[in-house]
Amino acid sequence: MEFQDFEFFKNQCLVGGQWLSNGQSVNVLNPASGEVLTQVPLFAEQETQQTITAAANALPGWRAQAANERAKYLKAWHQLLIKHSEQLAYLMSLEQGKPLAEALGEIKYAASYIEWFAEEARRVYGQTIPGHGRDKRIVVSHEPVGVCAAITPWNFPAAMITRKVAPALAAGCTIIVKPALETPLTALALAALAQQAGIPDGVFNVITGNAEPIGETLTASTVVRKLSFTGSTPVGAKLMAACAPTVKKISLELGGNAPFIVFEDADINLAVEELIKSKFRNAGQTCICANRIYVQQGIYQHFSKLLAARVAELNVGVGTEPSTDIGPLISESAVQKVEQQLADGVEKGGQVIIGGKRHALGGTWFEPTVLINACEDMLCAKQETFGPMAPLFSFENEEQVIAEANNTEFGLAAYLFSNNVNVITRVSEALEYGMVGINTGVISTAVAPFGGIKASGSGREGSHFGIDEYTELKYLCYHISDQ
Ligand code: NAP
User: Fold this and answer.
1) For 214-244, b where at least 16 C-beta lie within 10 A, e where not — what string?
2) How many angstroms separate the CA atoms of 234 and 232, rounded?
3) Is the C-beta atom of 356 inside 6 A of ligand 1?
4) Residues in contact with 241: Cβ distance below 8 Å, sequence separation at least 6, in sequence order
5) Which residue is catalytic, options 47, 106, 182, 253?
């Protein structure tokens, strides 16, 4: 079956329950072949305004529903994602390039947020607080923020959407999503399935198009009360400033530069396996990818050899082929960034022990690469790589590695490997990051609060904390008379 025949395939935008185009469109490409998959509409200011109106019109009806009614819609949507997971994964792999197994994993992960927040919808508990006088009673409730907007990236085309939309809908908000132009088809498929699940018109809208006018219209609007953004730090900072005049509530999930620290007493084989997952998943294009790998001196050589041997086994190819471990990078500029960091690393004394160049397949494939003798003044120590290159830094002691690991503007994820509970406790407490993986390279789950500090953003997604981002507290102060 061709992907165009999938029952959820859409190449128009969903606005107030209607599938719309505007006569202008942009190509959606397959990054593996450069082939045009389809076109999607290029919306701008006028269509964005129309969508804001649709989301505002849908708000009173949606927020008035009982929490268990909203939960029912979310559960139906969740089941449709699971039912169509194989086809959704195929579509995602086509437009994004990631291996099928990873795409399927992402669909299930994306669905898990919908299931989680369907359950959380019924647990948005308020409080009563002892009053400040005999005649006073205080009741606190969580109310939906209102109309929300979400701007999402291409690296996780499904999960970055459901972890915003599911809590928003659970809380009683309506939402407008603008996905990345590289991966709009997964977003539109999610919207088609939400519609099939019976989610009322205007509650969940998806618009594709020019980022700047859409972003400006959403942020300037006084009707939109919340912006949730996942993407790069410079764009996040710009949107944060644009939200200031209307004093919107905001959540920002931004870039990372994760340290991955391996102490001499660690289980080295485990650390190598977890590094492969953390570093090379999605060809290195995740915000929580290990970016700087710190290995203690005594095991540095042994670790490098084990890692290189394991990297040699990774199968580079087309994402939709089941045997592929590493797909193409999203764009030519993504490849150039890896090349630039690698050239800089080699110039400053680094040594490539495996990989190190564009892959023979051509296009935007890059060989999985290990660079040893990395040091602090290299670009790869300072910038997010977002590609399949693993630079190995050597360290002497705990104090040194903590200082180097924290020497970055970012604060999203960090990883540490040790079998000493004292080391684990001291180092994890000293790391200035929102999330720390201890003896594991896989930390994402719907049940935990995902997010960063410093230039990696603010706010959390997932867990019971995730729904707070879509509610405002209201407190009622009662005067109770004696009679
Ligand atoms: P990006 O360039 O910031 O784009 C992200 C989204 O913002 C896209 O939808 C993009 O639209 C839109 N956008 C760009 N400029 C805009 C503007 N001026 N106004 C409004 N919207 C604008 O980031 P990316 O390259 O797609 O994604 C990679 C980055 O995301 C990395 O830094 C990664 O670490 C970060 N990330 C963070 C997390 C997290 O949870 N912390 C998760 C995933 C990714 P167009 O596609 O149309 O340009």
Assistant:
1) bbbbbbebeebbbbbbbbebebbeebbebbe
2) 6
3) no
4) none
5) 253
Distance CA 263, CA 271 (A): 10
Cα gap 254→250, rounded to integer Å? 12
- Is residue 182 among the annotated active site residues? no
- Give the Å distance between the CA of 211 and the centre of ligand 1: 10
Of the candidates 174, 153, 155, 189, the one whose C-alpha atom is nearest the C-alpha of residue 77 is: 189
Cα(391)–Cα(409) distance, integer angstroms: 19
* Other residues' Cβ atoms within 10 Å of the Cβ of residue 478: 10
pLDDT digits (tens, 9 = 90+) for 311-354: 999 999 999 999 999 999 999 999 999 999 999 999 999 999 99
- What distance in angstroms lies between residue 333's CA and the mean position of ligand 1's atoms? 14
- Is 212 touching ligand 1 by the criterion CB < 6 Å? yes
Give the C-alpha separation, 231 to 456, whole Å.
10
> Using CA atoms, how far apart are residues 97 and 31, in angstroms rounded to an integer?
6
Going by C-beta distance under 8 Å and a sequence separation of 6 or more, which residues neighbour residue 334? 285, 364, 386, 387
Whether 283 contacts 326, CB under 8 Å:
yes
Q: 372: helix, coil or strand? A: strand
Active-site residue flag, 321: no
Catalytic residue among 173, 243, 287, 380: 287
The whole-number pLDDT of residue 483 equals: 86
Rounded CA-CA distance 67/87 in Å is 31
- Counting from 1 in the atom list of ligand 1, the atom nearest the Cα of 234 is 3
Mutate which of 230, 248, 337, 469 for ligand 1 pocket (most atoms within 8 A of beta carbon): 230
Q: What is the pLDDT of residues 10-47, one digit of tens each?
A: 999 999 999 999 999 999 999 999 999 999 999 999 99
Predicted confidence band of residue 184 (pLDDT cuts 50, 70, 90) = very high
Q: The dihedral of CA 469, 110, 236, 57: what is its sign?
A: negative
- Pocket lining: 348 vs ligand 1, CB cutoff 6 Å: no
Residue 267's pLDDT band, with cuts at 50, 70 and 90, is very high
- Give the length of the chain: 483
Find the farthest-apart pair of alpha carbons in the chain and give their distance in angstroms, rounded.
86
Mean pLDDT of the chain: 98
410 lines ligand 1 (CB under 6 A): no
- Evaluate: CB of 373 within 6 angstroms of ligand 1: no
